[in-house]
Amino acid sequence: MNEPCDYAKSDSWDAFCIAKVLLARLDELPDANPQDLYWTLGQLVARRNSIVKHASGLKNQMHQQLSYHYPSYKKFFCDIDGKAALAFWEKYPAPHQALMVGVDELAEYLRKASHNTCSTRKAEGLPVEFSSRASLKKTSYFGYD
């Protein structure tokens, strides 16, 4: 069992070592403790809660950024992380970029991004709302242009 340590650490080496121990010393290994399952489950639940909390924080940051550039964004995309909304935010991070596109092109883009669930009416309302905003200014996505 004592082999020289001139190996490269890898998953295949780990698997080999585990298999070797299981074959050679199975009778010496301790029995599995059922409490280990509860510990593992607790760790998974804690990790999930951490991920959910982080995702919630990121979504709040997104709301904050969107409200700066698109003050009335909730009128058009109630689900800001839906397919159409995410595609729209990615392609048009600032309102002036969306205003440079025709309604037909915008409607086609939203339909494609949403797999035909986004209506033409939504695309028609977007440029009207953006052009009527007094706070509309031509800035870059990061606000320094």
From TrEMBL:
Highest rank taxon of the organism: Bacteria
Pfam families in the cross-refs: DEDD_Tnp_IS110
A Gene Ontology BP annotation from the UniProt entry: DNA transposition
One MF annotation (Gene Ontology) recorded for this entry: transposase activity
Domain Transposase IS110-like N-terminal: 7-71
Residues spanning the signal sequence: none
InterPro entries: Transp_IS110-like_N (IPR002525)
Record protein name field: Transposase
Organism the protein comes from: Paenibacillus polymyxa
